[in-house]
From TrEMBL:
Residues 20-126 form the Ciliary BBSome complex subunit 2 N-terminal domain. Residues 391-476 form the BBS2 GAE domain. One of its GO terms (cellular component) is ciliary basal body. It is found in: Cell projection, Cilium membrane; Cytoplasm, Cytoskeleton, Microtubule organizing center, Centrosome, Centriolar satellite; Cytoplasm, Cytoskeleton. Residues 165-272 form the Ciliary BBSome complex subunit 2 middle region domain. This is Bardet-Biedl syndrome 2 protein homolog. Residues 666-692 form the BBS2 C-terminal helix bundle domain. It comes from the Eukaryota. Keywords: Cell membrane, Cell projection, Cilium, Coiled coil, Cytoplasm, Cytoskeleton, Membrane. One of its GO terms (biological process) is non-motile cilium assembly. Residues 338-365 form a coiled coil. Residues 575-661 form the BBS2 hairpin domain. Residues 486-549 form the BBS2 platform domain.
Length: 698
């Protein structure tokens, strides 16, 4: 049984997912975490008695080993690592919703302090692609931004939604790091600098990412799922009723291959094989896990796995010795495994008994129990169903048999469509038939494999045959063909040239849409059943045009294009609001500063009047009260303006991402870079032109 080699009880609460270890003097590892009231604590048991200078850092009154860093804002992320080329120790990086602080703990001095308009939800430090210097890369409101040691902005790009997790490693195997981004739109994206090279879709917000080894990485979702990918292929995944708070790669059983260590919201810590997901070790903290890190915290030359809880409990584990290999769990865990195997044995015996009874039924010629015709097979069909008064728009999956057999039950597995990823149809005895219809509402435009299992038998059967079949739901299944030629065309449009014949375009349409029979022309108009609006596709003289009020046009460029001309009026309207909100924000900030100074002066005058027993003191305090009330109201207005500004910035970032995804290869990177330059120079008209034509020139 593997037991902790040290346990600490720190007198500070720890914010979830905000734990790191840094060697700030270049020698001693220090456990660092965000705590309450906008503070970061640094636990350094190796330098007792040293008092920090009085800039930001101060000693805790509760523990002499802990120093407190006052951020004076709610901390949203932190990390530590080597950022500068000539620094002795690691740099501490702390992010908030408005700023990024790079701090030299050893010298107790700011390295840089930058405003980040898109916020900092998560942060990673390291080298990216061909960029020479290490970068502190933050993920915020649909945007990624990287800063070097001097605070210079060397990297910026946009992504699909609010960023929740980042990791740097060599994903493609070319010897250079790529950036993996997990976001709230359920996607894991891989960036080679500012170029999107790969994309994987999950079924919940991606809350954590960690590099395992080679091209393999672990991930965690907001619904309690953890798993491992090797490049684009998922090796395994498991789902828990608890939430994964932190994941980390560490070789706990000393077999030379790292395991996926997961800290859970119920306090459980487990280690799983990177190949199979099998649990090889587990332990429990008294409260939810806050973070899992590693470091030589005892300075004995051995790296320990360090687990922390939100209540400040810290445990350190060494990799297993030779005597413990293959036996990391205690006896109770082994008993749980024996019970699980026993339960599995009972299930297999029951299944064997059913097979025996079925074989007996076949041998009895007078009994038709379990016997079905030899030509029985499962047939499936997909069709689009517009909304009615009784039911919203959906895709209907029809499952049937070609003879008089009945379908007793249907089980469908599909990622990201059904709650719990599965759906069961179990008709009542009175409604049994040879056909079952299942409504499906895919939330996103992605292809989904439907794994179908159906129980098929005769009308009087007590035993049923299980038929299995897989059917793919096309990417744009929630679009219905519109045969109304008088409908107004969509306002948005994309135009580009391709070297494909019309027949190839029709083939592509049939693969990605649910088209009725007889559609042989590439000129088609669709209704969007999910968000409303029209999508029009037309082609003439090898020039293809897409007109749409929906975001579908982004994915339709799956037929590889080089450069496009667009007209997206709704995006332009959103961009135009940003300047207005920025202007209001600056005016409100200036007004609040004036009022603050006035209140400060008024407070001094009121106190002077009180001490001198001046009869006017009541009037002074009444004026002070009125000013304070006005200041609170101005703050509420400023807060609402700030939220509206964030929403507009998100819309701008999404618009830039859409403009980039409408191009492929070099034109895509040029558009994103040019959009960034237009934003920096506050040139809205230029931004419009770039998004529309791909270049700032008129």
């Amino acid at each position: 049984m593997l037991v902790p080699i040290f346990t600490l009880k720190l007198n500070h609460k720890i914010n979830p997912r905000m734990v790191t270890i840094g060697k700030f003097d270049g020698v001693h590892p220090c456990l660092t975490a965000a705590t309450q009231a906008g503070k970061v604590f640094i636990h350094n048991p190796h330098a007792r008695g040293q008092r920090p200078a009085a800039h930001r850092l101060s000693h805790s009154t509760q523990d002499s080993d802990i120093s407190l860093l006052n951020i004076n804002q709610a901390v949203t992320c932190l990390t530590a690592g080597k950022l500068g080329p000539n620094t002795t120790g690691d740099t501490l990086l702390v992010g908030s919703q408005t700023n990024l602080l790079a701090y030299d703990v050893h010298d107790n001095a700011d390295v840089f302090y930058r405003e980040v308009s898109d916020g900092a939800n998560t942060i990673v430090l390291g080298k990216l692609g061909d960029i020479r210097s290490p970068l502190a890369i933050i993920g915020g409101n649909c945007a990624l931004q990287g800063f070097d040691y001097a605070g210079a902005d060397h990297f910026w790009t946009v992504t699909g939604d609010n960023v929740r997790s980042l990791v740097l490693f060599d994903f493609t195997g070319d010897g250079k790091n790529e950036l993996l981004v997990g976001s709230e739109d359920f996607d894991i994206r891989v960036f080679k600098e500012d170029e999107l090279v790969s994309e994987m879709t999950e079924n919940e917000t991606v809350t954590s990412l960690c590099h395992m080894h080679g091209s393999r990485f672990g991930y965690a979702l907001a619904n309690g799922t953890v798993g491992v990918y090797d490049r684009n292929a998922r090796y395994w995944r498991i789902k828990s009723k608890n939430h994964a708070m932190s994941i980390h790669a560490f070789d706990l059983n000393a077999d030379g291959v790292v395991e996926l260590i997961t800290g859970w919201s119920n306090g459980k810590i487990d280690a799983r094989s990177d190949r199979t997901g099998e649990v090889i070790f587990k332990d429990n903290l008294s409260s939810s896990v806050a973070g899992v890190v590693e470091g030589d915290y005892r300075l004995d030359g051995q790296t320990q796995l360090i687990c922390t809880s939100i209540e400040g409990e810290v445990r350190g584990y060494l990799p297993a010795g030779k005597d413990l290999k293959g036996n990391l769990m205690d006896s109770s865990a082994e008993q749980d495994l024996i019970r699980e195997l026993s339960h599995r044995r009972q299930n297999l015996l029951l299944e064997l008994r059913n097979y025996e009874e079925n074989a007996k039924g076949v041998s009895e010629t007078n009994s038709g129990v379990g016997v079905i015709p030899a030509n029985t097979q499962l047939q499936t069909a997909l069709s689009v169903r517009p909304a009615t008064e009784a039911q919203k728009a959906h895709v209907e999956l029809s499952i049937s048999t070609p003879n008089e057999t009945i379908i007793r039950a249907v089980l469908i597995f599909a990622e990201g469509i059904f709650e719990g990823e599965s759906h069961v149809v179990h008709p009542s005895v009175q409604n049994l038939s040879g056909c079952a219809r299942v409504p499906i509402v895919p939330p996103k435009d992605i292809p989904v494999d439907l794994h179908i299992k159906a129980f098929v038998g005769g009308k009087t059967s007590t035993q049923f045959h299980v038929f299995e079949i897989t059917r793919q739901l096309p990417r744009f299944s929630m679009y219905d063909v519109n045969f109304d030629s008088s409908a107004d065309p969509p306002t948005g449009s994309v135009t580009f040239s391709i070297s494909e014949r019309p027949q190839r375009v029709v083939m592509w349409l049939n693969q990605n849409f649910l088209l009725p029979e007889g559609v042989e022309s590439p000129d088609v108009t669709f209704n969007s059943l999910r968000g409303g609006g029209l999508l029009s596709v037309s082609m003439s003289c090898a020039r293809r045009s897409l007109r749409s009020d929906t975001s579908c046009i982004i994915s339709l460029c799956g037929i590889r294009s080089v450069s496009t001309t667009t007209c997206l009026s709704s995006d332009h309207e959103r961009v135009a609001y940003v300047d207005e909100f920025h202007s209001v924000h600056q005016k409100l900030t200036a007004a609040m500063a004036d009022h603050s100074n006035y209140i400060r002066n008024m407070l001094v005058q009121a106190e002077d009047a009180r001490l001198m027993c001046d009869i006017r003191q009541r009037k002074r305090y009444r004026e002070l009260y009125d000013l304070n009330r006005d200041l609170v109201n101005e703050y509420k207005i400023r807060s609402n303006n700030h939220n509206a500004l964030l929403a507009c910035l998100k819309s701008v970032n999404l618009a830039i991402q859409r403009a980039g995804r409408l191009r492929v290869g070099k034109p895509k990177n040029q558009v994103i870079s040019a959009c960034r330059d237009a934003i920096k120079s506050n040139n809205v008209n230029s931004l419009f032109r770039i998004m529309r034509a791909g270049t700032a020139s008129s």
